[in-house]
Amino acid sequence: MQIDAIDQRILYRLQENGHLSNQDLAEQVSLSPSACLRRVRALEDAGLIRGYRAVLDAEKLGFELEAIVHVSLDQSRPGWHEEFLAGIALHDEITEASIVTGASNYILAVRTRNLAAFSNFVEDKLSKIPGVRDLCSHIVMRKVKSRGGMLPLASWR
């Protein structure tokens, strides 16, 4: 799907606030409400908008610890990749997982209530996933930028 400047403005506004009414969105992108709704539906149908959700405050909900965990796997095991994916799918503490290049195979974002819960998660769950060879954890002290969404947004304004 080819997107034009109006589609880009729609995507930018929805990314900033997915709770906008169609009327407000239409005003912000200088379209009639019906034209705006048609464009949003086309963007959804094309898969450019995958969904809408609330962004929760993990700390206020009691999940005070965030960690980045580098995981290295034993790649000589048959089915090592699939086995690891199945293993991490079982654990809600893992909020994101990425396959990466470099010294490790995966980087995981992990959220737990506190350091004791994180330690238990690593010892009792993560390290016991078959094929896990090495773990290196980094505790997030303070988030200085958390944007989400996609880039480059500056050119879409």
TrEMBL record:
It comes from the Bacteria. One of its GO terms (biological process) is response to amino acid. InterPro entries: ArsR-like_HTH, AsnC-type_HTH_dom, Dimeric_a/b-barrel, Tscrpt_reg_AsnC-like, Tscrpt_reg_AsnC/Lrp_C, WH-like_DNA-bd_sf, WH_DNA-bd_sf. Pfam families: AsnC_trans_reg (PF01037), HTH_24 (PF13412). GO terms for cellular component: cytosol. Keywords: DNA-binding, Transcription, Transcription regulation. GO terms for molecular function: sequence-specific DNA binding. The keyword Membrane does not apply. Residues 3-64 form the HTH asnC-type domain. This is Leucine-responsive regulatory protein. The lineage of its organism: Bacteria, Pseudomonadati, Pseudomonadota, Betaproteobacteria, Burkholderiales.
